[in-house]
Design goal:
Length: 342
Amino acid sequence: MKVTRDEALALSMGLLEGRDTPAKCALLQSDILVEAELRGHPSHGLQRLPRLLTRIERGLTDPRTEGMASWRSDAALEVDGMNGLGPVIAFAALRHLETRVATSGVALAAIRNSNHLGMLACYVEQIASWGCIGIAMSSSEALVHPHGGTRAMLGTNPIAIAVPTAERPMVLDLATSTVSMGKIHHYAANGMPLPSGWARDAAGRPTSSAAAAKQGSIAPFGGAKGYGLGLAVELVVAALAGSELAPNVRGTLDAEFVCNKGDVLIAIHLGHAPDLAAKLSAYLELIRRSPPADPEQPVSIPGDGAALRRAIALEQGFEIEPQLWRDLHALSRTSVFEGHSA
């Protein structure tokens, strides 16, 4: 079935506000979830809302706080999220960075004790709107096995980069695993088999069962290269944010533990180089027009697909599983803690 952005936002905000979330916080959190749906990433969308509501009801997440931030140097902001909603804490941190980056040249926020951020593209796009390069990194539970290994030892450790141009920014947003665990959960919820090479079961054997993969591990993307990048993100986030390393991280995929992963947001001021934005846009267009391997599949730039899907979804609505939509409506009439499993 299809629903509109406004319908999805209204439902999500109503559910959050019904659990004592202030309207402005409910809007930030809901917008991140709905943006994922619009861009074709339901793994980071509304399927995460029931668990989030349960976390609020159990006191694991404080939906009212914007955290506590202090500058530990001219360019480095230290943020204690105080168990707040991930998007609320992150956007509060970005407001601090915006006021500092024009004078410092580079500004960084290291966040601990915050909840799941959702799709990282939204944060780096915000930074790019200031005319700055944006970089975001986040850690998670141990979900990914090392290259050559079979046991989950690293987080999915996504990284996103946005570079402003004369048009919309170039946005790269990817997990350092072959897929996110959210996508594994999406496949499991819809009874779909996993493609070969995505995951291993709890015994370390390759599996096409999403349910088995939830108890096992995901492969790093690109073999040793994805593993190396994921490990680097793991160490950078933990070192800067003072957060736990993957084997000890909890709280992004459960409703049992306080969330203790870390996030890093970086803004880099581009200065006043003449014609830089136009130069970058021209280069991206040159790449798009380069000869494709398949004439039916033109060359694209990271973020092109998401932008096209978003434009179509804003006009026509986006697809959502009917059962999930019914479940969300049911949650508006009952306590999540009593009426819905985590």
